[in-house]
Amino acid sequence: MKTRKATAAIATAVVLGLTATACGGSDSKDEGGKGGSGATDAALNSIVNPSTTKGGTLKIEMSDEPDSLDPGNTYYGWVQNVSRLYSRTLMSFKPAAGKAGLEVVPDLAEAKGQPSPDAKTWTYKLKKGLKYEDGTVITSKDVKYAVERSNFAPEALSNGPTYFKAHLIGGDKYKGPYKDKNPAGIASIETPDDNTIVFKLKNAFADFDYLATFSQTAPVPRGKDKGADYVKGIVSSGPYKFSSYKEGQSAELVRNDNWDAKTDPIRPALPDKVTLRFKVKQETVDNNLLADNITVDGFGTGVAPATQAKVLTQKKYKSQTDNPYAGATSYIGLNPNVKPFDKLECRQAVQWGVDKASVQAAQGGDPKGDVATTLLPPSVAGYTKFDLYETEGHKGDVAKAKELLTKCGQPNGFKANLSARADRPAEMAAATAIQASLKKINIDVEIKSFPGGKYFQNFAGNPSYVHANKLGMIMTAWGADWPTGFGFLDQIANGAAIKPSGGNNVQELNDPKVNEGLNKGIANTDDAAREKGWGEVDKLIAETATAVPLIYRKNLLFRPKSATNVTVTQAYLGQYDYLLMGSSK
Prior knowledge:
- With 585 residues, the chain is an alpha+beta fold.
- It contains 16 helices and 22 strands.
- The strands form six sheets. Strands 15-19-14-18-16-17 form a six-stranded mixed sheet, sandwiched between helices. The chain has a five-stranded mixed sheet with strand order 9-10-11-2-12, covered by helices on one side.
């Protein structure tokens, strides 16, 4: 989801505050990012249309439903983003323009974590005066419980990452709060008093403050938790609370009267209400943005290919676009547990056979991103440029691919299933291009489309389903959980991240060299050496041929004229960051 030092020119994610001119937005022309709806890419490094006006409704639409709005049961970047309206975490990212938006700042915590000299113990002190929407006091025990339920109860909450489980002492044995009835919970998270929480790790973890920004540290009162059904009654710790929630349809947030702004300097909380509509066709979302009928596309991955030409060629629209890099890579996961991808040469044949230039064109060309040759994108610390499968113009090498098919015992090619998300037009277009290019080497690809909201939970990230339905090729995309190589690679390449459902290591890679590189790397407290090591791990992954990098993604975003407080940060995959957001008209 983030950036790297050497690519300062790349600013990703867009912090958006959106209000109608009727609620205080300006109609004046843009001058250095102040006033008006801005110019093309005006939000990349400045705040467009600043406003402090309160009131109005922030209207969000998206083409599918969330994996879950439960902060402890989500892994979509846009949900991590929007959840900050109703939940607070130990740490957060500063809502600010440009590189300043990557700064980690305290949220529930008074200050950054205090590490022990060996970085194996991290201590946080909570602020005083923190309350839930019902007025009860938020304690360190609530944060501990939130981490326990989100990391150790995959039978109920399967969508989030597994960092705490992998790195806490005893994390491999603790059964979670629903199965382990000991109210004391896991011993390696200590709460010596209501305002102190201590994490004890089995290895050094130099990036722990980044991990503390995750929604898994948003407090949950044990007495109100209902497992998977908690999403129907989330208890707010942020400036907004749920007034309604209809699964798969919509949600509405209103002000939380027990939120104290004095404890929360990073949330201006401008709108009076926030509405979310799910499963709206992407083209309809785009048309509503162009007509200024809604505030923002919740997914934040950019307009559909059908809309792209309109916003880029018509002057009245182009000035309202921002085209940041997303700090993300789209790729195909090749699963060795599905034949014939158990054979290295069969996977390598796909690597050589895919015409990446055609994939880029199908997704919308340069505005949607650059051809990728690595998993790590250039905007993430540790990126190293290399290409193990280099071809002229990135168009693939039919002869080389066929040679490898012969070596893997498939000289006449084979049939394969390729999964993709039906509600994402660009991903479906890319899948079609891949299907066409692999046909040239006699690999007959059948595209299997699934709903995006449950894509990882029920289908692509569910090994049992993958194996039973022979999903050997899986379309996916990934952005860094935080702006380092570990924050990008661990959950998609570490064998410890393989889960019974909701997993993101879709290729089920469990390579000892890769695992060792990741685990030793995060324990290295030498910043320069740690950063260098991530490029080496990326190359180890490439040598397994289990992931076919396709595109370093860019998002072609459109901001309505009523948008205010729009700025590019790099915190959330090129999306609009809702913390500065004002109201739509």
